[in-house]
Amino acid sequence: METHQLWVFAHIMLLVYWLGADLGVFILAQMTKNAGQSVETRAALLKGAMLIDIVPRLCFALMVPVGLTLARSLGLLTAPDWVIPLAWAWATLWCALTLMSGRWEGTPAAETWRIANLSVQGLIGALFLWAGVTSLSGAGPLGAGWLAWKAIWMGLCYPAAIMIDVAFGPAIKAFGAIAMGQGGPDTEARYKAAVNHTCVWVGFVYLFVALAAFWGTVKPA
Fold first, then answer.
1. What is the DSSP track for 45-96?
2. Following DSSP, what letter does each residue of 201-217 receive, concatenated?
3. What mean pLDDT value characterizes the chain?
4. Residue 208 near residue 157 (C-beta atoms within 8 A)
5. Does residue 1 surpass a pLDDT of 60?
6. pLDDT tens, 53-79?
């Protein structure tokens, strides 16, 4: 078995667990909008969604080094040798912080991590877009047009993912009020609107991931 095949397998499995787990988060989030359920039930559903959400976040982080390593194995990445180790080091750190972030919930460290996380995502997304656009013009690090387009679609996933976190912030605040017995029709409306707004950005992530997967498998000219 060639090493390249192993990286292809890893790339596929990351996509499967990323979207599969994220779909579970999506469904549970929709269920929490039902005001007819008890607060305890809705809180349990929301907690379950946030726990499951760790899986797609880990897969999202690992997509970067696995994708770069796969591109290098195909001979389609022209970049300094230190880029791959740096990508793996960054992804390892991101995964570790993601796993630890639950322990920081409600502390200043949680907010610091959230801001750092969103900032890094924005930077990575910009780098993907830069690599894709410059490679289409023949001046970038990617040696195939289909790979450049895949990088562009992946780059667009990052701002969409950032907006998921931003849009869900008001939902957390509204549900906190509901859990404390301070809910009402207006609070419920704010919660549902925030969840629905979040789901719009989830849809954009699904779209961009589907486009990236299409360009990566079909490889249109």
1. HHHHHHHHTHHHHHHHHHHHHHHHHHHHHTT-B---TTHHHHHHHHHHHHHH
2. HHHHHHHHHHHHHHHHH
3. 91
4. yes
5. no
6. 999 999 999 999 999 999 999 899 998
